[in-house]
Fold this protein.
Amino acid sequence: MNLTGLGFVLLFAGLILAFIVLGRRRGARPAAFRPLEALQSLPTTVGEAVETGRRLHISLGTGTIGQTDTAAALAGLTVLDQISEVTVVSDKPPVVTASDGAVMLLAQDTLQHVYSRQNAQERYDPTSARVAGLSPLSFGAAVTTMITDDSLAGTVLVGSVGSEAVLLAEAGHRANITTLAGSLDPAAQALLFAAADYPLIGEDLFAGGAYIGRHPGHIASLRAQDIMRLLIGLAILGGALLKTLGILP
Amino acid sequence: MKIRFGNALLTAIAAGVGFVTLLGYFVNAPILRVMRQQLVAWASLLAAVAVIIGALNLLQVHLKKMTRGAPGWFYSLFLILSLVGTLGVGIAAPFVGWGSGPTNTANAWVFHNIQSALGAAIAGLLFFFLVFAGYRLLRRRASLTLVVFVVAAIISLIGAAPLPAGVPDFGLRDLRLWLAQVPAVAGGRGLLLGVALGVIATGLRILLAVDRPYGE
């Protein structure tokens, strides 16, 4: 039995639940976030899309459900839910691209629920969420064509993506639209730092729900992540110290 | 707050399946291991069906684009022809003696001569796009992060470039090696740690029904 792993997960889950309960208390202090240019610029991009009557392109990357990059696709779906809440009322609702059938189905489901919440089910178009390409490079090539052909207001890429992200960011630059992008892959993050207007670095990818929607569960999750990071950092430092002193073998 | 039965049931199924799968990793009980393996097998089966749905969606989107004459419809025509053609030769292969299964001669030919070649061409373009992106980066408003990024990139490029014999490298090769082995590894591990915590938190939010990317 792996008690350390189980204990870690239980502690993490306990912290999330505790912060949710603490956040709901009367008189609880509102969460303060560190400045994050990419996510703070998002309302402006969304507002421009609505005002100019152009579509916003939300890409969930090449992640799949059931693999190691599932969490990135789920983070993208959270951002999709919150952005589409604002943009479905415009003349041109957002267009969503994915590389996996299951992610595309979840995106369709998310959009359908947003339309349902807005009492605008008749405006829902299932092809708004689409599979752009089934392999990473075909996905990159297809999205590039879409960005340059369709009249888009901006691209928001939140998901797992590799070096093909550069194609997407470059197409956005040629079409003169804003590109906000983040990926799980550190190498792709470095490429996006150079190519995207607003890159999301590291765990910024998972902060969308807390920054955009101020969702209590997501704020609690960010707080729990901070505590866990601190504990892991202390454990690493403690381990290094004990090893240096010869206490640990 | 009104809770619909269907949503409560979906949440219970998702959380239950998630907990059983997670416990199967940590607790060494045969029943949990068997259940976890069975659930993962079902998930793989669903993922395979989702690939077919994805291909049908791709076809639907491009048929719509072509019939409407939307910008770029010509590429959609090529995509549809390629999709139908590849599927057609894959199905016909066993009947004309090209072998069977995904590795039949026809599929292998399409993969090696078309898909791999096009993939390599697109990958080759990435280099030029990166050079342009690097140039644009220099024109952005300067910040400490930007300066560090650009200086590290230049040192890495020069340090990795082949120099003619007898030309001194002024210690740039050693500096590049140090950059790659110390600050880059430390930074990369920091990023991966943050990403891993984000991944775990996302999974736990679904297990705790805080996030429900299914139903309402």
Observations:
- Strands of chain A lie at 55-61, 95-98, 129-131, 152-160, 178-182, 198-200.
- The mean pLDDT of chain A is 89.
